């Protein structure tokens, strides 16, 4: 799997860019602020539907423009697809940004086009993934599953809607406006149904990642004994078992939920945990060890995606190498499959390990220009 050509129009610093991309490794070299990261961000946006840096679409539209466009021509083992995303800068009276997704020229819902381009991404924001608040790790798991599971993308979106509705009823109860029990019971059933499915899927994913994560961690830092596990509110090997456990937990937390006015039961309360001898990683690891653990997790992700899709994902590595010591840089370079398309950014070409520099196409980047 690879991106054959990327085209950007009024996206971030690029007014008009058409960029052919070679197989294998490509290094985007240039000063900070030159637009290197914007290229990787655009590919991430087309693959996963979101940006690792922007909270709103309006941040992606070039200043002074009203519309931005990103397009990728993707070559897969048995097909060629064109993914195109149009972003519209909202007017002041619009409540939310608008966007349109096209797959081979036809309008699609996000869950229908997901998985057409599969990426493993490492941006500077990911350095703190294992020490950040739990929502960051839940997003990591959901993004990984979302690239291969259409049902997970759909159910995650449904869960967000259900939580909004249920929380509104709970807030009404807290303000002595008791909601109809039948209405709350309906949202309870929907919550349990989705919570059981989503949490079981996440737990299975983490179980499959655990051993590759340990192996990759040992490769990067020599550390051993790190345990990766899904820290969920309930257990169960089947959807029915988890649904029964969630129903019981809802009964136990009913009064507390009404007092706090928010939903306290569901996969939005779960976490991804990394421990050593029972100690959470953030309590004992240095920044370098954190970075090595996150890199190991990303490599485990790549192996899982390859196994699930039958194709090697595209690697997006934004300034990953600059803070690694030579041994870890070399280990990362060797870990990237030679048949993978990998896009890396760096300020200077000499920061690339020899193994990557010898096989990478080097593209200089200046403001609004590549090559």
Describe the fold and architecture:
The chain has 371 residues and is of the alpha/beta class. The chain folds into two domains: 1-118 and 313-371, 3-Layer(aba) Sandwich (Rossmann fold); 133-310, RecF/RecN/SMC, N-terminal domain (Glutathione S-transferase Yfyf (Class Pi), Chain A, domain 2, Up-down Bundle), CATH 1.20.1050. The protein has helices at 36-48, 110-113, 134-146, 150-174, 181-221, 239-260, 287-309, 326-335, 354-357, and strands at residues 2-11, 14-20, 25-29, 67-75, 80-88, 98-103, 106-107, 119-122, 226-231, 271-276, 279-280, 314-318, 342-346, 361-366, 369-370. The chain has a six-stranded antiparallel β-sheet, covered by helices on one side. A six-stranded mixed β-sheet has the order 8-12-13-3-14-15, with helices on both faces. Helix 3 packs antiparallel against helix 4 (150-174), helix 4 (150-174) crosses helix 5 (181-221) and helix 4 runs parallel beside helix 6. The longest helix is centred in the middle third of the chain and has 41 residues, at 181-221. The radius of gyration is 22 Å and the shape is globular.
């Amino acid at each position: 799997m690879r991106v054959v050509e990327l085209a950007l129009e009024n996206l971030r610093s690029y007014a008009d860019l058409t960029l052919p991309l070679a197989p294998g490794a490509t290094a985007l070299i240039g000063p900070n602020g030159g637009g290197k990261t914007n290229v990787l961000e655009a590919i991430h946006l087309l693959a996963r539907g979101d940006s690792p840096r922007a909270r709103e679409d309006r941040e992606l539209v070039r200043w002074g423009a009203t519309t931005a466009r990103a397009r990728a021509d993707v070559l897969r083992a048995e097909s060629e697809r064109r993914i195109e995303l149009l972003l519209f800068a909202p007017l002041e009276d619009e409540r939310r940004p608008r966007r349109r997704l096209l797959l081979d020229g036809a309008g699609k819902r996000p869950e229908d086009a997901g998985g057409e381009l599969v990426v493993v991404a490492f941006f500077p924001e990911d350095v703190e993934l294992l020490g950040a608040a739990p929502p960051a790790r839940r997003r990591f798991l959901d993004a990984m599953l979302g690239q291969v599971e259409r049902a997970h993308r759909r159910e995650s979106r449904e869960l967000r809607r259900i939580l909004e509705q249920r929380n509104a009823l709970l807030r009404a109860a807290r303000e002595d406006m008791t909601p109809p029990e039948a209405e709350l019971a309906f949202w309870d059933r929907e919550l349990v149904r989705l919570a059981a499915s989503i949490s079981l899927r996440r737990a299975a994913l983490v179980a499959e990642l655990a051993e590759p994560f340990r192996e990759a961690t040992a490769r990067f830092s020599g550390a051993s004994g790190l345990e990766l596990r899904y820290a969920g509110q309930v257990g169960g090997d089947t959807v029915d078992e988890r649904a029964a456990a969630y129903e019981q937990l809802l009964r136990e937390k009913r009064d507390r939920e009404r007092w706090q006015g928010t939903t306290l039961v569901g996969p939005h309360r779960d976490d991804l945990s990394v421990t050593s001898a029972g100690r959470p990683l953030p309590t004992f690891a240095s920044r370098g060890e954190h970075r090595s653990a996150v890199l190991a997790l990303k490599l485990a992700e790549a192996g899982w995606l390859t196994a699930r899709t039958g194709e090697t994902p595209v690697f997006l590595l934004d300034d990953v190498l600059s803070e690694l010591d030579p041994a870890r840089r070399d280990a990362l370079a060797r870990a990237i499959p030679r048949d993978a398309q990998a896009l890396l950014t760096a300020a200077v070409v000499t920061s690339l390990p020899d193994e990557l520099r010898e096989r990478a196409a080097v593209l200089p980047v200046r403001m609004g220009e590549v090559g």
